[in-house]
Amino acid sequence: MRNTIRIIAVVAALAGAATYGWQWLFPDDEAQIHALLERIAGGVGAGDRDDGDMSRLARAAALRHDFDPDVTIDAGPPFEKLRGDDAIIGAAATVHGSVRNLVVSFTDVTIHVDPAPGGATANLTAEARFDAAGGGRGVEARELDVAFRRIDGSWVVSAVTFVQTLRRLDQP
Amino acid sequence: MVALAVVVFRYVLLPVRGVGVSMEPTITEGDLLFVSRLAYRFRDPKRGDVVAVRIAGQSVVLVKRIVALPGEHVGFRAGILHINGAPLDEPYVRNRSDWDLTEGPLGDSEYFVVGDNRGMAMRLHDLGAAPRQRLIGPKLF
Question: Whole-model pTM?
């Protein structure tokens, strides 16, 4: 009886390890999109106060690989709408130069991969924490719809749309 | 014990850590509060409730106060909240600046939520009409 339990435990552990290993070696679409979002969060974050300008520019430039060249971003007020990966990199570099200790994270991520290959969408909360001008930490959180498409085998962001949590009274 | 905690925090209470200043002095930076996930299954949200408002999910939420109910007209005149044209007494507001917001109607299932700290600039403050389905529940303690 004891041997049977041991065998079952070993088989279960091996199956778990094999599943984990398979997913690590061959991540599915959702895992790839999660990884993409984590990479973008790290790239948009402004890093430590002591980061050099070159380091910040390099991190901003690396974002180019994660966006469609024709990407459109509407993150809602007060941010301007952006179009194209050059605009994204420029905006990230500007943020890195002006906002200190910016930490960006994406939470409550729900991903839907289209049945037709090459497309996916996600709904998520984007949260930014940063050193506020008046001291202390500032925080900004908003809901976004994100569209992805696959280019040369890799997922990239093709559109970001702001979802309003609270309706302003002057809007329908 | 662990299973009980999982059940309580998944289905009964939502723990929320206060971040930011928009609800001062009622809630200050770092405060830990607990929101009822069940209350609004048994009653409607009411004026004065401090509520958690869902964003995309429930990991990050807005904490605001309900000041106007479905169908009411709400706005600010020189920093004073007006409901259906009449000023509302708000003893929980300590800091006030001259916010102006043209009065407008709420929809059938919309609640107007705003923070208690009216001393900050209005453009820096999240306020507006929240649909009922975004209200997770009221703060219990």
Answer: 0.83
CA-nearest residue to A168 within chain B is: B128
Phi, psi of B112 (to 5 degrees): -90, 125
Contact A166 B20 (CB under 8 A): no
pLDDT of res. A140: 87
Q: What is chain B's Cα-based Rg? A: 15
Average pLDDT, chain A: 87
pLDDT digits (tens, 9 = 90+) for A58-78: 878 888 899 999 999 999 888
B62 touching chain A per CB within 8 A: yes
Name the residue facing A167 among B54, B59, B128 (closest C-beta): B128
Mean pLDDT estimate for chain B: 94
Contact A125, A111 (CB under 8 A): no
DSSP per residue over A40-99, as a string?
Answer: HHHHHS---TT--HHHHHHHHHHGGGGEEEEEEEE--TTSPPEESHHHHHHHHHHHHHH-
Query: CA torsion sign, B36 to B58 to A16 to A13?
Result: negative
Q: Report ipTM (2 d.p.).
A: 0.87
Chosen from A37, A145, A166, A167 to mutate, greatest number of chain B CBs within 10 A: A166
The whole-number average pLDDT for the span A133-156 is 88
- CA–CA separation, B114 and B129 (whole Å): 9
Of all residues in chain A, what percent are helix, strand and coil, respectively (each to 5)?
A: 40, 35, 25
Does B133 touch chain A if contact means CB atoms closer than 8 Å? no
The pLDDT, as a whole number, for residue A118 is 85
Please tell me which residue, A98 or B14, carries the higher pLDDT value: B14
